[in-house]
Every structure is written in structure tokens, then in C-alpha cells.
Amino acid sequence: MPDWDKRYGKVGPPLFGDAPNEYVRAIVARSDFAAARVLCLADGDGRNGRWLAQQGIVVDAVDLSEVATELARSKDRAAGVSVNRIAADLLKWQPESAETWDAVFVIYLQADPMTREASARLAAQHLRPGGWFCLEAFAQKPAEVGDGAMGPDDPQLRYSIDEITRWLPGFHVIEALTGRVRLDEGARHRGDAWVARFAARKSD
Ligand SMILES: C[S@@+](CC[C@H](N)C(=O)[O-])C[C@H]1O[C@@H](n2cnc3c(N)ncnc32)[C@H](O)[C@@H]1O
After folding, report:
1. CA of 109 to the centre of ligand 1 (A)
2. Would the pLDDT of 144 be above 80?
3. Contact present, 180 and 145 (Cβ < 8 Å)
4. Spatial CB neighbours of 9, under 8 Å, sequence gap ≥ 6
5. 107 alpha carbon – ligand 1 mean position (Å)
6. Residue 165 — very low, low, confident or very high, per pLDDT cuts 50/70/90?
7. Nearest atom (ligand 1) to Cα of 21
8. Which of 12, 36, 174, 178 shows its CA 20 to 30 Å from the CA of 128?
9. Which of 64, 91, 92, 136 to mutate for ligand 1's pocket (most ligand atoms within 8 Å of CB)?
10. How many beta carbons lie within 10 A of that of residue 10, not counting itself?
């Protein structure tokens, strides 16, 4: 597993850029999306949480890396926004039982299957009825895609739509896609990639 503290601690351009992820922007632009309070899981140095806060949304964000979380806090301050940032492992982190969010974003959480599942189940438990679960990540590739697409070599670290759907019983799927995209996000996400994009709403 990557050493995220080490990666975020290196001096250089932001790993995934400072602009928000395209899919986050696309979800927020939908006419049927509305959120006053959002949870960003694995928010790294905070580009997505920060942008959501700039849209007037109250944002809580969790990430394993202390270094990324500190960096995110300092970028939030520079941008003049407030995000409640927590450094914690999503395999163990539990919000207060009464906490609810209108949407949960999981953008490129690169972690083992147990952590991925724990994150989705946590989201499912703490979304309000009608709330949105939105995810983008590297997906398992069909054989014909070969090595030509970026992302982790270990297939265990790639998502499948089947597993995501299994974690969220009773959710109404809005979109569930895998396919090739050209990523243009900072120094590390640049080039052809095979990704999953998934959005679903909790039943009312
Ligand atoms: C590829 S980066 C993506 C960061 C951010 N979502 C973005 O798109 O810029 C993956 C992030 O997942 C976080 N992460 C990995 N395992 C985690 C875990 N068990 N709990 C919380 N965060 C984790 C890392 O610290 C890192 O910030």
C-alpha cells in the first residue's frame, strides 16, 4: 500500500491538482442534486472538500494521512473556507451514531477491499433518506484493455460495479459505469485510465 504521508510530504506540485475532480463537479451540477452537508472520505489534501465548501456546503472530510490533512487545512485557510478535517483510518473511524449527511463522496480511495467496503457501509448508514453516495476510482479492466491504462497494477485495489452495488442494498442507482477516460488531475492522475463512476441514492 502506498505511504501517503511520504507522498504528500514531498515538495512539488499537488499530487492530484487543486481543482476538484470532474465527477464531483458533474454530480453537484445535476438538477436533482441538493446537499447542505457533505462527507468526503479519503479527501487527501482536500481539493474536493474545499471546492464543495466554496459552493456553500458544510463539509466534513476524513483521510488516513496526517500530512495530507495538515496540508488540506492550510490550503483551506488560504482559500478562506472552513472544512472539518479528521485524520483517521476509514477501517476504524465511526461518526456519532446520530450524524447524517446529504451526500458522501469517495474519490479515488485506493485501499484494500475491506476498507473500501467499510467506507461504503459507513456512508450507507449515515446518509439521510434520499442522500447521495458518489464514487470515482480505478476499476478492474477487461483483458483487452491490457497495460495501456494507468492505475494500480494490483487488481485487488481496483473497484468493480458489482462490489459497490453489493455494499449498498436498497439504494437507487443513478449511474454505474466503467470505461476509459483521459485523466487530467495534477501530477499523478494524468493520462488514459480505466475508471468506475458510481452514483446512487438511499431509499426514502
Ligand atoms: C489517490 S488519493 C485521493 C485523494 C483525494 N480523494 C483526491 O481525489 O485528491 C487516495 C487517498 O486515500 C487515502 N486513504 C488510503 N487509505 C485510507 C484509509 N484506510 N482511510 C482513510 N483514507 C485512506 C490516502 O491517504 C489518500 O489521501
Report:
1. 5
2. no
3. yes
4. 67
5. 8
6. very high
7. 8
8. 178
9. 64
10. 10
As a whole number of angstroms, the distance between CA 34 and CA 24 comes to 13
Q: What is the CA radius of gyration of the chain?
A: 16
Q: Tell me: pLDDT of 149 over 80.
A: no
Q: Is 107 touching ligand 1 by the criterion CB < 6 Å?
A: yes
What ligand 1 atom has the least distance to the C-alpha of 40? 6
Cell, residue 21? 475532480
Q: Give the pTM.
A: 0.96
Average pLDDT of span 159-172:
96
Per-residue exposure over 74-90, b if at least 16 CB sit within 10 Å of its own CB, e if not: ebbeeeebebebebeeb
pLDDT of 147 strictly over 80? no
Ligand 1 centroid to Cα of residue 46, in Å, is 10
